[in-house]
Structure formats: C-alpha cells, structure tokens
Amino acid sequence: MMPLLQQITESYQGELLLAKVNCDIEQDIVARFGIRSLPTVVLFKDGQPVDGFAGAQPESEIRKILEQHVVMPPPPAADPLKQAQELFAESRFAEAEALLKVLLGEDNTNAAALILYARCLAERGELSEAKAVLDAVTGDAHKAELAGAKAQLTFLAQAATLPDVAELKSRLAQNPQDDEAVHQLAIQQLSRQQYEAALDGLLKLFIRNRNYAEGLPHKTLLQVFDLLGNEHPLVTAYRRKLFAALY
C-alpha cells in the first residue's frame, strides 16, 4: 500500500507529507493511537490528528478522505518548450514552430527555444533564416544542441545539391562499392530523418574505407551523433559499433 500512498502524496505537490512509523519500535505511538491492525493511516493537520483509516483502501476512498482536509493544488502549467520538443519529435513542425514563436516573443534570448525554432525553419527549407537564428544563440549551456542543429542544416543543404535517392540507389545496384554514392545516399537519408539507414550505411563505409574523402565517413557519423544527442538509442548503439570498428 505504501507505493499508492506515495503516489497520492506526490500528486499534492508538496501540500502533503507522508511519514512511516515502525510499530514494532514505536510502541508509545501504537498505544496512543490505539493501533490494532496494519496498515493504519492517521491524517494530521496543524499538528493534530483529524482523520484516518485502517486496512487497505482503494485510491478513490483515500482521496475522498483527503479532500475534506487538504486542498489539491492546480496542475502545473504545461511547459511550452517541452510541448514544442514533443511536437518536433513527432514531425509536427508547424505546430512546434507556432509554440516557439510565442515563447520567443516573451524571451528572445531563450537558447533552447532558438535552437529548436531554427530546426523547425530548416525542416521547411528556410536554411538561411535558420542559420541566422542559430547565429543569435550565445553561451555554452546548449553547446550539444547547437552542434546538432548546425549538423541538421549541413545535411539539408548538402542534400539539396546531390543526386536524388533513386539515382543513388541505381548507382549502388550497379556498383555496391561506389563510396561516393554510399555517402551521398546517407546524406539524403539524413535529410529525410531516416537516421538508422544512414548510420548503417556510414558505418559500413567507414569499415570498408575509413580514409574515403579524408575520413569523411567518420566525420559524418560524429555529426549525426551531435544531431540526435547522446541519449538517443541509435547514438548509443552506433557509438559502440564505431568504437569496435576503431579498435
């Protein structure tokens, strides 16, 4: 029952304190409150017992008791930046951009919001405007996110100058060892957020020819890691694979 009580307590956002008593040791407390069975819960307010119950109870009944004595605080306001991040992760770029515009209207120095706003602009092809937004980001607090956003701009700009996916796949069907086509296909895949396919191609190219274009496969892999961030499961997996290939 303790996990349920902890969950209910947390929902009161600091308005409620949960304490547990060892009845085998605290016999004076057991006698004072006439505790005969466990669990027994006593609710205190202003230092005095005001309510309680004995035996396991469903959550709804516990909350009914609490509602008579403790005011449930309003739910915390939604974090617009977190909402925008979730929308971006779902590829709902226009909705994320709209939220970020409001947020930046209140604070145009918010580095995390600026970086995400630039990424939204980049996704709809506004690369010059996105670069200008990133240039306005100052400080080192969001260094990794900034590097990732710059990598995204690089991939999108490169993809616009490369052959299309169908042509690159045709070249590879004729010659699977075409290193240039492998790398260019990975860039096209990155511009379409096909990250796993791109990472797989880049890693295979690195293993086969790590010195291609002065180490370009390795450099591109590191850029993708910046883009996705260290917590992304693909980054964890492919860092391990890259390490194994290196050593």
From TrEMBL:
Residues 1-67 form the Thioredoxin domain. GO terms for molecular function: protein-disulfide reductase activity. SUPFAM superfamilies: Thioredoxin-like, TPR-like. InterPro entries: Thioredoxin-like_sf, Thioredoxin_domain, TPR-like_helical_dom_sf. Gene3D superfamilies: Glutaredoxin, Tetratricopeptide repeat domain. It holds the Pfam family Thioredoxin. GO terms for cellular component: cytoplasm. It comes from the Bacteria. One of its GO terms (biological process) is response to stress. This is Thioredoxin. It comes from Pseudomonas amygdali pv. tabaci (Pseudomonas syringae pv. tabaci).
